[in-house]
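User: Modeling request: complex.
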Amino acid sequence: MDGIPQGGLGAGKGTGKKKVCFVITNRVHYTRCKQLIQQLKNHPQLELQLVVAASALLPKYGDVTSELERDGVPIHAKINMLLEGGSPITMAKTTGLGLLEMSTVLENLKPDVVLVRGDRYEVLAIAIAAAYMNIPLAHIEGGDVTGTIDESVRHAITKLAHLHFPTNELSKERIIKMGEDPKQVHNVGSLDIEYLTTIDLSFPHDLWEKGPEGLGERFDLTKGYVVVMQHPVTTEYGSGRQQMEETIQAIDALKMPTIWIWPNIDAGNDEVTKAIRVYREHKKPPFVHFYRYISPELFARVLNHASCLVGNSSAGIKECSYLGTPVVDIGTRQGGRTRAENVISAPHNQEKIKEAMLKQIKNRKYPSSAFYLKEKTSHKIAEILAETEIDVQKQLMY
Amino acid sequence: MDGIPQGGLGAGKGTGKKKVCFVITNRVHYTRCKQLIQQLKNHPQLELQLVVAASALLPKYGDVTSELERDGVPIHAKINMLLEGGSPITMAKTTGLGLLEMSTVLENLKPDVVLVRGDRYEVLAIAIAAAYMNIPLAHIEGGDVTGTIDESVRHAITKLAHLHFPTNELSKERIIKMGEDPKQVHNVGSLDIEYLTTIDLSFPHDLWEKGPEGLGERFDLTKGYVVVMQHPVTTEYGSGRQQMEETIQAIDALKMPTIWIWPNIDAGNDEVTKAIRVYREHKKPPFVHFYRYISPELFARVLNHASCLVGNSSAGIKECSYLGTPVVDIGTRQGGRTRAENVISAPHNQEKIKEAMLKQIKNRKYPSSAFYLKEKTSHKIAEILAETEIDVQKQLMY
Amino acid sequence: MDGIPQGGLGAGKGTGKKKVCFVITNRVHYTRCKQLIQQLKNHPQLELQLVVAASALLPKYGDVTSELERDGVPIHAKINMLLEGGSPITMAKTTGLGLLEMSTVLENLKPDVVLVRGDRYEVLAIAIAAAYMNIPLAHIEGGDVTGTIDESVRHAITKLAHLHFPTNELSKERIIKMGEDPKQVHNVGSLDIEYLTTIDLSFPHDLWEKGPEGLGERFDLTKGYVVVMQHPVTTEYGSGRQQMEETIQAIDALKMPTIWIWPNIDAGNDEVTKAIRVYREHKKPPFVHFYRYISPELFARVLNHASCLVGNSSAGIKECSYLGTPVVDIGTRQGGRTRAENVISAPHNQEKIKEAMLKQIKNRKYPSSAFYLKEKTSHKIAEILAETEIDVQKQLMY
Amino acid sequence: MDGIPQGGLGAGKGTGKKKVCFVITNRVHYTRCKQLIQQLKNHPQLELQLVVAASALLPKYGDVTSELERDGVPIHAKINMLLEGGSPITMAKTTGLGLLEMSTVLENLKPDVVLVRGDRYEVLAIAIAAAYMNIPLAHIEGGDVTGTIDESVRHAITKLAHLHFPTNELSKERIIKMGEDPKQVHNVGSLDIEYLTTIDLSFPHDLWEKGPEGLGERFDLTKGYVVVMQHPVTTEYGSGRQQMEETIQAIDALKMPTIWIWPNIDAGNDEVTKAIRVYREHKKPPFVHFYRYISPELFARVLNHASCLVGNSSAGIKECSYLGTPVVDIGTRQGGRTRAENVISAPHNQEKIKEAMLKQIKNRKYPSSAFYLKEKTSHKIAEILAETEIDVQKQLMY
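Assistant: Request completed. Predicted assembly structure:
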């Protein structure tokens, strides 16, 4: 922390490097930001201060700290901040706790700029800590329009941020419309898509052999399979069980080989996982294989070769637009997020879901969309961070 | 709290009234919201849940709880949340602590709507708690443009709020430009100006007799006096001492009877109060009278008859526009806030400040501006709250 | 909360009843305190203020709030305070968060005495909140000697408490030796044993039929079965996996019908559950049935008819002393806790564990011990609370 | 924090030094621990990790961080944790916040032992964080018997601590009686008295010239003067104003030159300071000089030459026993603290206080007592820390 003896944190002081504090808050987040982290670490004018927080510290969600060690990236601080419960109040409290913790870390690390990504509560906590402590804030993935509370939080972070890295042109325009300085808004494309362009996307034969073993029977993937990934909708807390039932019925009716990936820990998690658990235990469907966790590498390959992705994950809108994978997007969670032709929307209704799935499976792959793609996303972020002068006092542009 | 036996909080349940949770965070706040509180309390379709928090609980900043008792307004919860320190980090931490506490209170009170006012950290904490807990948020005083971190926080709260009560037409337009639903944005005028229209604004002869005694000599007010009220600028933390010195030199050069009101507790408070304290103790200026606290009633009368208000208080822009009192607004704190003709801006420069003051003193009263005035502000807020249906899922309007 | 209108919390004020605040922190805790809660609720001189906190609020650990509703016990406040992680730091942070929350609740409920039970972190948080807020503290289950951090915390709570309800004579003596006022130390026996005296203890035939279904095969219980219940040892964090392996090997070697009850959420939970999970998934032992949760009613009957209980649960020392069930107590967790003749100790060594188990199974039931038994435990606690005058200023008796 | 690159915190790892984390929580604390800090810093087997927390970070209570810089002692972390309010609930909340913050710091610094001093809430927070995180705790100043909540907290810390450094023989015996391991209890004498043995104790002629200026007239000290230092009594919250009035009346009746030192920030601070403030402003006593802050160096000299110390400070019992200064100890705050012949006790009664003061003034200096004195206190603490092996699992010794 501050005043660390023998060089430690003070190292950047004399060198005149700009200290960039970047916070990793979960496992998936880390994998998809590896290139960004390397760019920040190796940029001659930047000094990376890496903070690991929230579920990225919990072994059961994937061990980020030892992976960082293997990758040679030093950790400057660890923050435990996650309340147990998966309910609206624990989301609020996690934000409050994260704000208390993060401000101590910022006081001790004294970065020149804080870089955050996304729209979740950990990110809001960091943004507020930086804002009150007069530290310029750079934000990746602002300007998107979706459902859930993330929608409001994303725009609130935009209003606290000084430098913006939206992933697409429409989001860039929205950020400017909201009154941000156009000179500080840069469409650099999506880190998630950049990640896809750098990895092996071959058929996931090894899913059964090497991957982390899921629950349920194994089946032949080569004849086609669908993927389900449906998260709770925080703003519709209390309806999750029923919403999930509709999807379950659709899947149960189709009886196609299905890879089912566990929901995230947002408020409502209990409801939706209970529906899945009851289905699994009572029906023991031989055609479904359940994964609590799947590595981002494998997930990309599973998505790339799926006949259809069903649910409400942003991967359906973003990654699958690039991959051309057919998607059935259910409910309001991805609300207004700009979508390519690969997506069909469906309400929480088993008949409608089944119908849309059949249509998508029949259609097969769509052409790849470049909507969320830009070259050298990570490189550009690092460059802009290094070069931009930021005035900590913001003001609405109208 | 939730499940209170024998009627308690459950009282509103059967009645079908809409439960409005309103939070008071400081003494001045309370006085200027008295009419609003009475409107909320007496509205046939509303049930008021009043929370007292932050400095409103600290006797040294004025005892709100016993005043509420005298006014017959029951308190539903008290929240201690204020960190000592007056620095950027303590503002961040107070927000985090407030968020932890406020979410517990909301969990136990279960309001139908939360009503907040302004742009300070306590308010941001409440807004986030409500947002994550799927409770609709109504916000008074959004859309203004100013300096300090309040500028960013104000707009972040707007992005979390569902129902907006700006105080003027320009702010209403800005809120809509930021992508809020025009149907939910209501220019109801300023509570502060409504307050002025209801009280005695006669010459403050009794300042020396009955009011809370300040420090320093008494002098004859009837020959004219100036008022100084200059707060720290959070985004210029570290410059406060020098900024205040310039104002002090200007005042010391003019040697006019001066009523000096103590700065607020924002980050930088230490710096600016030190400058004042040193001036007071070393120079013992016989023409300055210092007030740590002045009641809103007396403050309004003092403002109304002042030859000039100097500093960076929003009262110079808002209250004085209605009163027609000449104002010298120093520095960036009131940044882009819309001003009537009564305001002259000045940088942190003693010569410029003195010059502007002389011009304003010579000019005398300006005509009253109606920019921040609307009839029945409090009544309208209560009416709109009672009648508006709010969908908890927001979405950007473009 | 404080100032609740229309009677609510103020109800007790005029009646002159002593307000007793009792906090339930988990599901098992509630079942075993039902009689105490009824005694407190129905005592003519007492008014019960019930707070539900920590894991008692999380549906996945058993839904206490709806059970309280069924039992007609009103809840005065709910406190979410549990951090996710099951590590030393999350135990510390949960205590800190609980202290922040509990002090707000006490400020708003203003009880005359706070009653707590046990030695866990939630309880320490409550004890400290009460201590600093000058509210007398009564403590059930002090004076025992065990292992883990609970040992230190239990005695720290004793030093903060004004009134003591140890469960046995030796513990009473220890509390007095530590410098507490002998007049305030009452051996009332154990609530856990009182609970056993009031319920059906017949053979758990219905384990397979009605109880919450566990994981694994069913088998014939009537030919004898053993029960395993081994929790993490917080002060030996990092050794849990190896410790559990020894027990697993012993069980796997014996191949007797085994009911295995899941460990609690103390620091180290991840380690020990991982060992069990790997065993279960790799070996799929047909003679073991795993329970994540078992109701206290069923647990008592399972214990009563077991050939042997193996592990480090306090139930082995307390409940089984009364039931006469043979116990193999492993490691340091129950350290110095006074044991009846039914307990054999064993180190973390599979051979020693197996040997001890064989000896115990052969021995069959021991005679019942009355060491932890007193008549009317709950009734006495309520009586003493009603009658005792407490001076909030404590002082060491030597 | 953990994983700091380029040596930083990892420096001690390879060297095999024992990492001692010591926390400074206020300005006075620092001065009196300077020798201890130097001993810890320079010991060949120890590596000092210094944390600055609570009021030690607030400029208005004396700037510790810049003094540490001057003294060449690096700071490893800073913790803001102090709530504003000076009431029972803010003491509780400060403890909770400190616990949250301190556990993050310990997680990142990973010390081998944590060293704390005293019995205040910041210290309890640190003790609990260390306890749950399995870090051995060493405690200075345990075993004393006093009044206020500090009495209970002190013994609670003893029950969490592994290694004890009481300041006198009686306290050592009490710690052992409470069940601690006699091998881990070392009477090393008082750091406060060691401090007195190393500084200039000459007549404070320079009080008026160089020292930080107080409020009120100056007067001739050489004809004799009394010192008043009376703190709030947390366990008698609500009675502070009346208690202080009695002392004020006694002082006002004697009309001797009086140096009055401001009370500390414990709960009740508002009450007692209000009494002083009203007295000062209404009576403007020409014979009293008020100090908000006095440096420890000057305080020692002021004490040494005072005709009498009046109030309830521990300095009356400890420092003055060594200096031989006559003391009138009022009320319960110093309760059972072992006192030398220099102390006369008095209740909160102006007549009794005046009477006792007259007796003490007449008596003049007492002989010096060695009750709290041992040679090389700081050196011994460092030595014992370096040499002692600590088993993190404690257990009551009976």
